Amino acid sequence: AAAAGSPDRTAASRPPLVLPLTLSYPNASRVASSRSRRGLAEGGHPSARMRLHDDLLTNGYYTTRLYIGTPPQEFALIVDSGSTVTYVPCASCEQCGNHQDPRFQPDLSSTYSPVKCNVDCNCNSDKSQCTYERQYAEMSSSSGVLGEDIVSFGTESELKPQRAVFGCENSETGDLFSQHADGIMGLGRGQLSIMDQLVDKGVIGDSFSMCYGGMDIGGGAMVLGAMPAPPDMVYTHSNAVRSPYYNIELKEIHVAGKPLRVDPRIFDGKHGTVLDSGTTYAYLPEQAFVAFKDAVTSKVHPLKKIRGPDPNYKDICFAGAGR
Hints:
Layout lengths: L1 E4 L11 E7 L38 E7 L4 E8 L6 E3 L23 E2 L7 E2 L6 E6 L5 E12 L9 E12 L1 H4 L4 E4 L7 H8 L5 E6 L7 E5 L22 E2 L5 E2 L2 E2 L13 E2 L11 H14 L4 E3 L10 E3 L4
Parallel strand pairs: 4-11, 5-10
Antiparallel strand pairs: 1-12, 2-3, 2-13, 3-4, 3-9, 6-9, 7-8, 8-9, 9-10, 12-13, 14-17, 15-16, 18-19
């Protein structure tokens, strides 16, 4: 479990928001710009929690269900702490892939309204509506218009549906085009972040938490809003001034109980070490990766080295370990 929030804000009286997570299909890293806030916090207990199933070994990212409009239209969105915009494919999209759910139809929602063009946003060609555009680390992209509507969070949530700004997608490329999930739920720091919108409304505490089931279990839960930390929670510093991303100071990596012989300063680049729930894999500086690879390889030398499943990548794989 990981928690992020602000220690000087207490929100025990506000109902925390609980969303179940379901595993979906493989995808790569994505990060986008955001603003700083959010530290650690505590608060009341969530009202309900769902035990979920699936297996991380056969999937690549986590999704939650979000409901937009009146009546609600359902979407499976990747929970992404490394980006800020929440978006779904629009019915008018000319370049969108085939995803898990039908596209969002603004005309079928009695509560939808476009975000009108203003000095604080980029505008579409006829200057009638605000637009968004994001490009992610794996070179996929998403663009569209901004709308506002009622967003609800499922039957497990104590928080009532809220009006929020989101992206109605008109074009997507790369992994975003081919993925099974409908879109992304941006949890980073930024004006368009669903977290910042709810916090600024004063309806939840300034924190969110995620708990993943693990490699052999899968599933998990997410809470938007403050909640009491487990008694054995371990804390680490995150510098919101240094980076728009949720960062930590990585000091050591151990393999089979022994620390790798690397200078900890190599982990201390521009953004430090970033916690990104929308990234499938862990990424290391080359020096640390080589040391990690060598340490693991030395421990599994009785096993046979084999090619990885994807010919485009030189994965380091072994056969003969059983399950």
